[in-house]
Write a structure and sequence with these properties.
heterodimer; A: 21 helices; B: about 170 residues; mainly alpha
Chain lengths: ~500, ~170
Amino acid sequence: MDILHNIVYGFSIVLQPASLLVCFLGVLIGTLIGVLPGIGPSATVAILLPVSIGMSAADAMILLAGIYYGSMYGGSTTSILVNIPGESASVVTCIDGYQMARQGRAGVALGISAFGSFIGGTIGVLGLMLLAPPLSEFALQFGPPEYFAMILCGFSILIYIGSGSKLKALLIAFLGIFLAEIGNDLVTGEQRFTFGNLTLMDGVPLVPMVMGLFGIAEVLVNLEETFERIIFTSRVKNLLPNLADWRASLGPIGRGTILGFFLGLLPGGSATLASFASYAVEKRITKHPERFGKGAIEGVAGPETANNAATSSAFIPMLTLGIPANPVMALVMAALLCHGLQPGPLLLTKSPDVFWAVITSMYVGNVMLVILNLPLIAIWVKLLKVPYAVLFPLILLLCLIGSYSTSSNYQEIMIMIIFGVIGYLMRKFEYEPVPLVFAFILTPLLERAFRQSLAMSNGGFMIFLRPPIALVFMITAFILIALLVYPLIKKGMSKTDGLHG
Amino acid sequence: MIDVVRGGPEIGEQAMRRYDLISSLVFLVCGVFITVISLRIRVGTVGDPGPGLFPLITGILMGIISAGMFIKSLLQSASARQESLSEDKRLWHNKCVATVVIMLLYAITIDWLGFLTVALFILFILYKAVGNLSLKVSLGGAILTAAIAYLLFKVWLNVQLPVGPLGI
């Protein structure tokens, strides 16, 4: 009954005309940036963060959340029609979605993608609603050792599940840790690595950093490419899948929802990881794997459902533990902090209006997205025809405005440009930006928990192993680290043997 | 060929090994730098950790891992020395350099000249020089985009943007 009461309370906030308008704007902007390659949800949320500060906390959260899950809907459109993913979570949709478009089934691909997204998103919100309150209550038992162990475990998971070189992921995470250490020390107030720079005294600002790493860097990389856009506009019809399509898609949608929901809880990757994992699962369990890559509807339904389920569940660790699962959640968390709210176990009791408004807005937003996406596909297709030469100055201008408007300080634009260049070089050198942002956000929490724990135990490291919750996290972290290190050592030894041999 | 995940061009194996060598060396220098600087900050004791302890651990671990990666890349380069070096790609594209310079100009001049003037100027340069659009389209696009951005952010959303000598 409590949950029912809370849902009614949440809807009473969301169904206010102003909140409905904010929700609509959020999902519309989200779909738009999802459609447009070169600007993702991280950069957009960062750009609109200063704008959201002028709103009520609940409306700000509704707007930013709408952008995030809206971008997942929009991302599939470019993947299917142009073979260019609108954002990273839709990369895998290109494989079969584009092939379906080539076979004249673009409408069905877009249709099943929208329906799958709706189902995954809505069930994900249901899971969020049921899981978040008990998790908040459980997290109230956490002290500094538990927090330290949990974040360490989060780091291990992030590195373990990340794509590419694990060594590079570790190095980039350490760079994130270092960047978070710049500024006034959180306990003593002493300055660290500021070298007298006033802007750096408050630490490296998150918004310009994220906009540089995700927005500017993406534009710079795209400038090197001349995308050949072959859009299957004339064939976008019959958006409603037939009975056979539904029969083939129901399994992938169900599995995608469950997989996406649980992967969205993990630190890093989330929606992107969920879509890749769903595709891999569908390809493995099908009786006809040869159809994959040639326009199998399961290859669109599963991943598109999974990435939307993951966006809903990504809110759980942020809202209940104060730990963002990905850069977008970090920015949403920053918005909460700007409104004077501390994400974590106490958010539910101290600000139930914000908590339940965000959750119920996702139901409303998902309905809006289905209504919005299917009839507006023709408009999104027209948008795709806009050349990148026209789009990129617009994206850059938005980033430049966003970075300046947070503190009216030109040095923050400089910081954004520096991170843009770093992000560009990271892509060239094959370093993922996610571990950097994740480490940057969690290091203050990690360091505080580490120092408090050591102070509590007079320097005894056993404090991290004594509480049962901390012990579970530490054991998981050690197993994952061992699994990471062992192959590297084995590989290194065999290389050395090979050279000597 | 486009690498859809990263969005950039594929880089050859040999070039990537060279990139790995360079990047690990950069991280090694960073690790040493962080370690040295953090020793100047109060490290404290294990029972009473100071502000320098965490950076010290960060610097040491970064140094160790980057040294490991440097050795790994060096070993890989040694075992594959016979591979062609011709697959290397240019690290910086002219368009990227131009875009970065234009953005830096925006950052430096925005407080003096105001948002509208600087936005108009950089949009025109980006459309014309980087986007290779015609003079008419570049000028029209720059005026339209700057005007919409001004109306949307400054007038409607009341975002704090600097005013230039003309009061706009």
